[in-house]
């Protein structure tokens, strides 16, 4: 993967982060978030890896810097994800949730995958999960309206990570 950025609407696929950070402070939060990522991630009931991607939730009030914190975390850990980093904004600026099918289609395009012609939302999310199944990738899903919006986009692999930033209320 190179340092290229592929932009399609509000969805981007990037390679490894480069350059110096302009992010200041929040050292304790970043340390704790990195520790969460580095934990084994075992299913506490079964004692083995979970069947789906792990989700790291970064919550906060609007304007609290949760997106900047998530972006800095991604910058620090991106080199661990050879499948790249996918970023998607899940709400419009006015707070309206972006339809899951639209986000899935845009993520597929960012992965250079053709969306099935005339596909419904379920077909698009299935195609996305298939495209991500063999990739060790990190998804940054910003301004999520609810858990269902995120769940539909998660790959069925424990090697993927999703950092979710919920829409502030």
UniProtKB/TrEMBL annotation:
One of its GO terms (molecular function) is ATP hydrolysis activity. It comes from the Bacteria. InterPro entries: AAA_22 (IPR049945), P-loop_NTPase (IPR027417). Residues 53-146 form the ORC1/DEAH AAA+ ATPase domain. It holds the Pfam family AAA_22. This is ORC1/DEAH AAA+ ATPase domain-containing protein. It comes from Streptomyces afghaniensis 772.
